[in-house]
Design a protein that fits this description.
The chain is of the alpha/beta class. It folds into 3 domains: 215 residues, FAD/NAD(P)-binding domain (3-Layer(bba) Sandwich), CATH 3.50.50.60; 112 residues, FAD/NAD(P)-binding domain; 105 residues, Enolase-like, domain 1. It contains 13 helices and 22 strands. The strands form 5 sheets. Strands 1-2-3-4-5 form a 5-stranded mixed barrel. The radius of gyration is 24 Å and the shape is globular. The relative contact order is 0.12.
């Protein structure tokens, strides 16, 4: 019988492979099980990474068509080579998945291809990709199985014409008419890609606003920008079904508050109505583990499911974000090794990689009002930022929220080019309990986009300099 592992991880996504790397660094005998055939999970294979490759390429395609001339750059006719665009996306994914597999070897982690489930205390059964089965002995089991796309009744996903994120990053042609069900992060990113490439995009959303997790002021500004970019929003609409015809699709919807049915026609439909934990068939019941109605694994002490069983990432409570899962994974490895491990979910940033980007961390104004917390805010538009003006990228703003009594930063919300990188200044500030004045009095290079953060922080106390 093989030696007992210190850690066996079920799932090779960002949470799982980071847990494996950290466990290996800490000298723990570790194995990781992944059924997909490649490591990296949804994020690396069909989510974050390939979508960003298409977002970047489509932004350049649009810029070459619409922005270069204003900058004094003359080009000939710009044509779309969708096949090559998809190829470069696939090459990026392949290189990164191979890199993760190399990191397993580097950190002496055994990589096992197959479907893993808990057979009992300290036991994991693996149905191998080669058709063979084996049982691994483990002192600790970590569930890192991630999530899968949620669906709607009466909609049959085929990943060709009616697609989730998986099919949306691999369409063979640019649809003339594209309907996007769901105005959340994933949907807006994918809708932006195909809109830039020439699709006529209609966004159908059940709620009366876009991006339900975002600050309301940010959501309104973002919707205004997206509308100018050509996206048509149909808010407060309930999708009741999609009918497949030979050459087109028919989407049926009705007002969420009641009313007459309406039919929209499309060449493709993207279903982006959120994600649900992938927790079925894992054998949780064999160790006394439980899930709630949504399939979220119930944990105690942050990550612990039962004695010697842990869960991380999308299959437990908290934001369903790859970087949150990464931090979960490292924290659990450290806890198993007898060290301190903790993740503050209030300081996990969110980024929407549209153009312009949208980013936030901490509390929204709505959350602070609901909690009865008195706050002050500073707001600064990129229209007044020197670097944004010279770059012709002036859409959006930065908003900083701080406690009215202590001045401690409670949150920040941004819309603008590059804010997905800029948000981390606030993350670090909040991690150290900084006041808005700390950021306001920190020298920033001029001219930079980051100055907008400083100016917004100055605005909390009313001494903005550049407006």
């Amino acid at each position: 019988m093989a030696d007992t592992y210190d850690v066996v991880i079920i799932g090779g996504g960002p949470g799982g492979y980071n847990c494996a790397i950290r466990a290996g660094q800490l000298g723990l005998k570790t194995a990781i099980i992944e059924k997909r055939g490649t490591l990296g999970g949804t994020c690396l294979n069909v989510g974050c990474i390939p979508s960003k490759a298409l977002l970047h390429a489509s932004e350049l395609f649009e810029a070459a068509q619409t922005n270069f001339a204003d900058l004094g750059i003359k080009t000939g006719k710009v044509d779309l080579d969708l096949k090559q665009m998809m190829k470069q996306k696939d090459e990026a994914v392949k290189g990164l998945t191979q890199g993760v597999e190399f990191l397993m070897k580097k950190n002496k982690v055994d990589y096992i291809k197959g479907f893993g489930k808990i057979a009992g205390k300290g036991k994991v059964e693996v149905d191998g990709a080669d058709g063979k089965s084996q049982t691994l002995e483990a002192r600790n089991i970590v569930i890192a199985t991630g999530s899968e796309p949620s669906t709607l009744p009466n909609i049959e996903i085929d990943e060709e014409r009616i697609v989730t994120n998986t099919g949306a990053i691999a369409l063979k042609d640019v649809p003339k008419k594209l309907i996007l069900i769901g105005a959340g992060v994933i949907g807006l990113e994918l809708g932006s890609v195909w809109s830039r490439l020439g699709a006529e995009v209609t966004v159908v959303e059940y709620l009366d606003r876009i991006m339900p997790g975002a600050d309301n002021e940010v959501a309104k500004e973002s919707q205004r920008i997206f509308k100018k970019q050509g996206l048509d929003f149909r808010l407060g609409q309930k999708v009741t079904g999609v009918e497949k015809l030979k050459s087109k699709l028919k989407l049926f919807m009705e007002p969420a508050k009641g009313g007459d049915e309406e039919v929209l026609e499309a060449d493709a439909v993207i279903v982006a109505v959120g994600r649900r934990p992938y927790t079925e068939g894992l054998g949780l019941e064999n160790v006394g583990g439980k899930t709630d109605k949504r399939g979220v694994i119930e944990t105690q002490d942050h990550f612990k499911v039962a004695d010697g069983v842990w869960a991380i990432g999308d299959c437990i409570a908290g934001p369903m974000l790859a970087h949150k899962a990464e931090d979960d994974g490292a924290a659990v490895a450290e806890l198993i090794a007898g060290k301190a491990g903790h993740v503050d979910y209030d300081l996990v940033p969110s980024v929407v990689y549209t153009n312009p980007e949208i980013a936030w961390v901490g509390k929204t104004e709505e959350q602070l009002k609901e909690a009865g917390i008195e706050y002050k805010k500073g707001k600064f538009p990129f229209q007044a930022n020197s670097r944004a003006r010279t770059n012709h990228e002036t859409l959006g703003f930065v908003k900083v929220l701080a406690d009215a009594k202590t001045d401690r930063i409670l949150g920040a919300h941004m819309v603008g080019v590059g804010v997905g990188e800029m948000i981390h200044e606030i993350c670090v500030a909040m991690e150290f309990g900084a006041a808005s004045e700390d950021v306001a009095r920190t020298c920033h290079a001029h001219p930079t986009l980051s100055e907008a953060i400083r100016q917004a922080a100055m605005g909390v106390e009313g001494w903005t300099m550049q407006m």
